[in-house]
Amino acid sequence: MDICAQLQENIANALHTLYNIDTPAKEVVIQATKKEFEGDYTWVVFPFVKKARKAPEALANEVGAAVKEQMPGIDNYNVVKGFLNFSVANDYWVHFVDEHCREERYGMKNAAADAKPVVVEYSSPNTNKPLHLGHIRNNLLGWAVSELLDANGMNVKRVNLVNDRGIHICKSMLAWQRYGNGETPASSGMKGDHLVGKYYVEFDKHYKEEVSQLMSEGRTEEEAKQQAPLMQEAQRMLKLWEEGDAEVRELWKTMNGWVYEGFDETYRKLGVGFDKVYYESNTYLLGKELVQKGLDMGVLFRKEDGSVWCDLTADGLDQKLLLRKDGTSVYMTQDLGTALLRHNDFGADRLIYVVGNEQDYHFKVLKLILGKLGFDWADQVYHLSYGMVELPNGKMKSREGTVVDADDLIAEMEQDAAEMCREKGKLDDMSETEQQHLFHILALGALKYFILKVDPTKNMLFNPAESIDFNGNTGPFIQYTHARIRSIVRKAEASQIKLEIGEGSLALTAKEREVIKSLHDLPDVVGQAAAAHSPAMIANYAYDLAKNFNSFYQDTPILREENTALKQFRVVLCAMVANALKNTMKILGIEVPERM
Hints:
Layout: H1 3-19, E1 30-32, E2 41-44, H2 46-52, H3 56-70, E3 74-80, E4 83-88, H4 90-100, E5 117-121, H5 133-151, E6 155-162, H6 167-179, H7 185-188, H8 192-216, H9 221-227, H10 229-242, H11 246-270, E7 276-279, H12 280-297, E8 300-302, E9 308-311, E10 319-323, H13 331-346, E11 350-356, H14 360-372, E12 381-386, E13 389-390, H15 406-424, H16 432-452, E14 460-461, H17 464-467, H18 475-494, H19 510-532, H20 535-555, H21 564-587
Parallel strand pairs: 5-6, 5-11, 6-7, 11-12, 13-14
Antiparallel strand pairs: 1-2, 2-4, 3-4, 8-9, 9-10
């Protein structure tokens, strides 16, 4: 039992013994003592003053004395008004480091053998364009949340749903037919996803020209959008696709194949992957079966034009379209089918969808319709809603070609990382291969950390220049701290310094204690971050730990310490910090270098 749990239990016992107040230990709130006061942990007495019939300071002093008598790990206590501050004994901290320093996964849990899977869906790209900055946040968040749940002892399955059919796909296909002149990735030298995205932009350009022409002839904007020949042709192509037209299906397979090769390359660069990939072209048919089931149950209804809807007005929403009048499906159709297929595939405990907050309404509807269709696991659906990513010059639009492609961004950041390393002289004795690997992991570390340190629910502004810096709250700062610590440990090993803690008491500095307290907090942080589905809590923990270590490193001799026992302890502490940084950054999908 750690010191916080011990404090909770002993304070609860003291309240019962002294004042006959019965309160569960878990309801005794312990928090870190503010830096301006002496102590490590604080208990706020005010909630118990009335029941104890004591003045706040008197209550705090009596409970403090009782707890100190029962806990050898508590060195002292002090009272500031209604705040009882406890100071933890050096021996406790030394014992804590000795007990956990050899745990490779300290702070992490292993999944139980019979744990039901938690399915996390992320990425979910459309096959009409390459992955861009918005997709990067989705992929990085999905991967990090999966790693975080895994670190909290859950059996995680990562899945991807590729939106490989629909009107947007037909737009790229039609534009390639009209304007492509047989261009291929091989003939153009372009990645397949970039090539297909080029024709999605091309469709939009010509479509706008047609809309403008029709409006000049007297149509309203809405009429012009519906009557534009290109849009009507794209809709006909979608109908032919759903009817299984051989020519349309063959073109669809070819162009999607180009995109998949491009996606896989980008996923490898980002360091993300999946246990299973679903395709909308396979799941929408199951969705149509569920729509028919809903009609048979009377849960859904068909309008006069043949379209199928679900009336959710009694649930405070509106009517939701599930099949168009021509019988073609919509996103909700395939999401119903995918949810059922995924639940059946994994027998999942939870289905987590990592999708932007513009789809909040969509997932409310999905849960409601699944429930109305009789699926008792509908409440297992959880939408991890995250904010949008913007650039300093505003929002991105794929159809207008104003996006920042993921591949281009990674390449630019690798170049920036290379320039930064050369300027700061971080490449001594490194081979060309080692240098290129360092540039890649620094670039990805900067990108991932900058995005993941922001609370997922918030919109964010991504500034590449701010993300790559060896100073401040950045990935490279933490990566460099890890490399610095590993250098210390290697020097210690070369000097035959034992990485073990001897017997006897050690005098710890205040900054040394801060580092140890940060390590002590790691299991709780992992648990809280997993409960909140927030990798940002892990990112900011890693930064605080690195910052505390650097403050300790600047003021405290390690290899130059004359006391052998203290020197050995500090080297062991360094190694434990490096391991904690490595593990927490791994949750974020970030690799840390051994040297720089």
